[in-house]
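Example record

Each entry pairs one chain with its bound ligand, adenosine-5'-diphosphate.
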Amino acid sequence: MEKKQFQAESKRLLDMMIHSIYTQKEIFLRELISNASDAIDKIYYKALTDSALEFDSTNYWIKVAADKERRTLTIVDTGIGMTEEDLENHLGVIAKSGSLAFKKEHEAKEGHDLIGQFGVGFYSAFMVADRVTVISRALGSEQAYKWESTGADGYTIEPWEKADVGTEITLQIKENTEDESYDEYLDAYRLKAIIKKYSDFIRYPIRMDVAGEEQTINSMVPIWRKNKNELTAEDYEKFYAEKHYRFDKPLKHIHINVEGAVTYQSILYIPETIPFDYYTKEFEKGLELYANGVLIMNRCADLLPDHFSFVKGMVDSDSLSLNISREMLQHDRQLKLIAKNIASKIKSQLLSLLKDEREQYEKFYESFGRQLKYGLYSDFGTHKEALQDLVMFHSSKEKKWVTLDEYVSRMPEEQKYIYYATGDSIERIEKLPQTELVTDKGYELLYFTDDIDEFAIKMLMTYKDKEFKNVSSGDLGIEADETESEAEQQEHQELFAHMKGQLAGKVSNVRASKRLKTHPVCLSTEGDVTIEMEKVLNAMPN
Ligand code: ADP
Ligand code: MG
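Structure tokens for the complex follow.
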């Protein structure tokens, strides 16, 4: 039998494939299963337009079988199969995708759910196998063919026998080397885990013998493709637990189904408790990313803005342009659109939680509020619109969380500013001499007890056209009482000069103040940087 050579380009490509396209060897199984699923889909799409063909989904499946003795791994499918010509064209020419051609042929009408497009996935089998044998019988043909290759040195095709339409691919798994073991690809539990990880939502059953019993490994219908009305809170909780997003229960889930310029489905969770490493460098944000039900990335950071980094969950889209290894995305335009969309959905979900389930929101805020405030401060306040309505502070009026909107909506008409005071704790702030004047006026005072608070608010500058004012800053805008008369200043001139001398280098001036009621002295600042901010800035490493 004549041995055919891969085209020269193909040889080089195959070499590249085996050595550098994929970072993880285990994905070969994802690629072969995706091809099997595509092959079944093709029958399904054909049946849509061909009345002679019936598609009874119970007849279609994918089977994975490992033989430890022979060191073989076999993937069988009941898909459309390949003719001799297909074997030659699709497996003989690397980077030629029969699935892409099929998609083009059936342009836009159907077939857009097919996974394949690059025509390289098949060759990933050579990362773990010395020899790959494909026996295939095409739909509508009696004759089967066998394609076989040991990699770069070419392939053979010969007529073969096969009882049913479909494809059987057998990998001769490599022997272990000094630095690499391939045994795991013959181990049923390991294979099961790989299938679960990447191919759980393949639409056809993937069967395998595990401990002497045939099991269907994949769950097939992804929960995110189901109708929201069919799903219960328990279903969402189960999915959260199954995906090991966290060990707690989610506080809230968001199920998104968007069709349009970009099409995607997503299930997002707002966790109930803070991950132990949340406010550390080790914490990594991100959502799982699926393309057409196949897992592409475990943690896609670009899908979440930092201020919503606490959100867990997944996104599935068929509008992504993947790169060849499907480990990265080729263009991020679609991804950016999805990310933007997701951020606004999270925001509106948080706003409705705030409006309708205040207690839940406060619970959430106690865990992740700091991150929201951090979001206001970072990127020079670019996320102002998204975040200003979500932040809360304690206040003098209610001794509980207050939003800026609540504060402003109950300000007396003559009140000029949104007043706040900073300190380590509410108790300490309440002892500050400067607070008295404001509270005596009947004005509400926000308590800033978190380092980030004042920085965040400085980025906001105003809320609903009201400026923020630290009670220890110079001009409080509380007229009349505010300015000291010249006579009074003169009267104590000598005393002030003496005090200033004593406190040289610590204060820049000593003056009479009408701001005090029951306290003899207070510190105040002029300019933009307040005492609390100075403290934080001084504590920062240079
Ligand atoms: P892609 O899936 O991106 O098209 P692959 O290298 O994975 O590229 O596969 C190349 C082509 O080989 C496919 O497009 C398809 O036409 C054919 N093929 C591979 N596996 C099968 C299979 N199990 N059944 C039928 N055709 C297959
Ligand atoms: Mg493929």
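The chain is about 30% helix and 20% strand.
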